Amino acid sequence: MSDKNLVTVLTPTFNRAYKLPDLLNSLLSQTNFNFDWLIVDDGSTDDTKEIVKKFKNDNFKITYIQKENGGKHTAHNEGIKQIDTELTMIVDSDDILKSDAIQSIYNEWIPVRNKGLCGVSFLKGDKVGGISGLKFPEDKFIGNFIDVRINRNDISEKAEVWVTDVLKKYPFPVYKGENYVGEGSIWCMIAKEKDMLFVNKVIYIYEYEEGGLTRAGKSLRVKNPLGGMFGAKVTLSKEFNWRMKTKKMWLFICYGFFAKMRIKDMFKECPMKVYFIINIPFGFFLYLYWKSKYLNK
């Protein structure tokens, strides 16, 4: 990656060759070209490689990496190993950036770069002017991801830009036979140590594709229960309010049953022992419901 640039746009992709030109065009429309683009191909079986070979331009550097299919989180891990710019922004292959996205990152980050923050969060919007989830409670402020997002129950996606060295400290766990770990679990781990800047500005336009991770929803999660347990366990700590801890305890137990774990083994893994015992029936009923509704989809 180039030393002169502040940010790398990281795009994990799988069989989205037909969408990547749209993202390229949005990057070519940027008002600030001081960024790199790293594409990590997670074992695509379409013509992604051939399409990317045609992506030549004089405005910014494009790097393409291929790996065996392992899920978006493994592509993220591989990409972060390669990045040496100060900041990293994950932009999915289905989505695009607004033309002032990179300039907005520069404008907001430079004044706070020495405050020990983990990054800056902007908003995601759709093509008709809506936004993903809630707006932040103030237009610009330094706060904590857990308080601003999780405890407010605003779990919709935002446009986060992370300090690369922080991401290097928190790789996603990889579980044999599974291909999904939710991003929020890592963001919450980071938030237990560092705050971030929040800015009420849309710089990212999202599109939910058929077959994408967001649309796959719970049917994907129940097939990756160890990743689900990891994500739930992260939230069973003092930083989270009781409503969220209760929800995540049910999920921890539910995913444990999907993983075919014995109750005593779940008990050993759980950081809140008494609360775990109290909530076993609720987690079990959730497991039965999800098993009938989602497992075979």
TrEMBL record:
<comment type="similarity">
    <text>Belongs to the glycosyltransferase 2 family.</text>
</comment>
<dbReference type="InterPro" id="IPR001173">
    <property type="entry name" value="Glyco_trans_2-like"/>
</dbReference>
<dbReference type="GO" id="GO:0016740">
    <property type="term" value="F:transferase activity"/>
</dbReference>
<feature type="transmembrane region" description="Helical">
    <location>
        <begin position="272"/>
        <end position="290"/>
    </location>
</feature>
<dbReference type="InterPro" id="IPR029044">
    <property type="entry name" value="Nucleotide-diphossugar_trans"/>
</dbReference>
<protein>
    <submittedName>
        <fullName>Glycosyltransferase family 2 protein</fullName>
    </submittedName>
</protein>
<dbReference type="Pfam" id="PF00535">
    <property type="entry name" value="Glycos_transf_2"/>
</dbReference>
<keyword id="KW-0472">Membrane</keyword>
<feature type="domain" description="Glycosyltransferase 2-like">
    <location>
        <begin position="8"/>
        <end position="132"/>
    </location>
</feature>
<keyword id="KW-0812">Transmembrane</keyword>
<keyword id="KW-0808">Transferase</keyword>
<keyword id="KW-1133">Transmembrane helix</keyword>
